[in-house]
Amino acid sequence: MRTYSPFFHTLHDDPAPVGVLRAQTTILRAVIPVVVEPPCEPEDHFEFHDFAVLWDDDHDERIIFILERLYVCKLLQEVLAIGEHKGHVALLLGGDSVPVGYAHKIEHECIGAMPSDFWSVSVGSLGATAKPWGMGSFLVRAGGDSARDYLLGLRSLWQLGTKDASFTIGPFQRGTVCPNQRLQDVLESELGDASES
């Protein structure tokens, strides 16, 4: 699967526009550091944040620069979907409303830092009570209901947003003994037996 940035893991990448809507979508995952108070487990220090990139016909990858800036400026955690079309960037956030000043931060910290063209930005919400469908039509380039259904389907199918981090389950399932621990137990047992004789 294609890697767009060292900051993000690609979960899904449409190689070309698909379906009746001719949508081309990439699902990316970022690892978000979290400040937690001890005692805690190692995975408590991180969360996964999954989000969608909705590409237009020119597949302008400069949107990745904006995503990287969002990440390092700690503004990505709100984003569920982002798209660019003809020099305009649209972001859909997960809450029921857009935080005050969020669009200004995006323009200042991310869009304004682009080394080439200036892009305009709009921010909407994909929350439960929000109605972002005008912006959804911009991102998907389809009629209101189709755009809404597509975006809600993406959110549901990929569980877009922030979730607890989880470690990959390795060869050592719960209830099994790590080989190093087994070796230590054997050595202690043999050393114990040797000291008794």
Number of strands: 7
Structural class label: alpha/beta
SS element count, helices: 5
Mean pLDDT: 78
How helix-rich are the residues, as a percent range?
Answer: 25-40%
Keywords:
197 residues; alpha/beta; seven-stranded mixed beta sheet
Explain the layout of strands and helices.
Elements: E1 9-13, E2 24-33, E3 46-55, H1 62-72, E4 79-85, E5 88-93, H2 102-110, E6 120-125, H3 133-140, H4 144-158, E7 161-164, H5 179-196
Parallel strand pairs: 3-4, 5-6
Antiparallel strand pairs: 1-2, 2-3, 3-7, 4-5
Helix pairs in contact: 3-4
Please characterize this protein's 3D structure:
The structure is a single chain. The chain has 197 residues and is α/β, with parallel strands linked by helices. The protein has one domain. The protein has five helices and seven strands; from the N terminus they run E-E-E-H-E-E-H-E-H-H-E-H. The protein has helices at 62-72, 102-110, 133-140, 144-158, 179-196, and strands at 9-13, 24-33, 46-55, 79-85, 88-93, 120-125, 161-164. Strands 1, 2, 3, 4, 5, 6 and 7 form a seven-stranded mixed β-sheet that branches. A hairpin with a 2-residue loop joins strand 4 and strand 5. Helix 3 (133-140) packs across helix 4 (144-158). It is globular, with a radius of gyration of 23 Å. The N and C termini lie far apart (60 Å).
Quick structural gist:
With 197 residues, the chain is of the alpha/beta class. It has helices at residues 62-72, 102-110, 133-140, 144-158, 179-196, and strands at residues 9-13, 24-33, 46-55, 79-85, 88-93, 120-125, 161-164. It has one domain.
